[in-house]
Amino acid sequence: MAAVNKLRAGLNDVAIEDVKYEDDFYLLQWLKAHKMDVKRTEAAIRANVEWRRESDIDVLAEEDFPRDLAEKLPVHLNGVSKGGMPVLSLRAADVDFEEVIRKFGRERIVRYWAQIFVKMEKIMIAHNQKNNVNTEKLTAGCTTGFMVVVDGRDYLLRHILSIKLVHICAEIAYMYKAHFPSIASQGIFITSNRFYELVVKVLRPILDCPSLTLEIYNSNQESWKKSIFGRVDPTQLRIGLASNEENTTGVY
User: Fold this and answer.
1) What are the pLDDT digits (tens) for 172-213?
2) Of 15, 90, 114, 216, which residue is least crowded by CB atoms under 10 Å?
3) Residues 6 or more apart from 132 whose CB is under 8 A from it?
4) Separation CA 154–CA 192 (nearest Å)
5) Which domains does the chain have, with CATH numbers?
6) How far is CA 156 from the centre of its chain?
């Protein structure tokens, strides 16, 4: 693909320091996130490389999640869809966001999500490489990011109305869009009430990305079960989405 070849050539100096920028499938994901515009993509990658260097982000890919924070804000990162797409799921009812903010503060929470994103990126790169071992011609359909499923049912209203939480969510969303736009292909939100739906809609313009499709469902099971479970087995999602039985697959 000409766009990938041109982008790789423009990033020779960057690839010397980080070999993932030699990976055509990784570069293709970045291009898809920027409408295949090579100049915009190169500028975004260079800004991202500088941010990662200044924030010491890449070390987080190899580090374990901080146990204290991961226990309070659990994310299931190792799900797999029926089509082989990597799946992340989060059940909002598992989290007391007021306690998390009070105990850990904005900076630690945002860095924790940076670690989640960089681990997602590592999984995505490995998935796309494995999925394209026999690929002879690179096309836009060769690569994919994560499916992200957020179960917002039973989400407490006091959390939704927290200004601190909304600000932190917005900061995480901006970080995703600026520095990790390649890692997700599908975002699915199951809402519990109109207030939560409003928060998701407020975040939607921030998350808007050419390579990401967003779906918002209400809490009526008939509105989302067929769609979601048609693509991913319930055992690959966090508890609450499928049944009352505990899901023990993956790492939380």
Assistant:
1) 999 999 999 999 999 998 876 665 666 667 777 777 788 888
2) 15
3) 25, 142, 143
4) 6
5) 64-236 (3.40.525.10)
6) 23
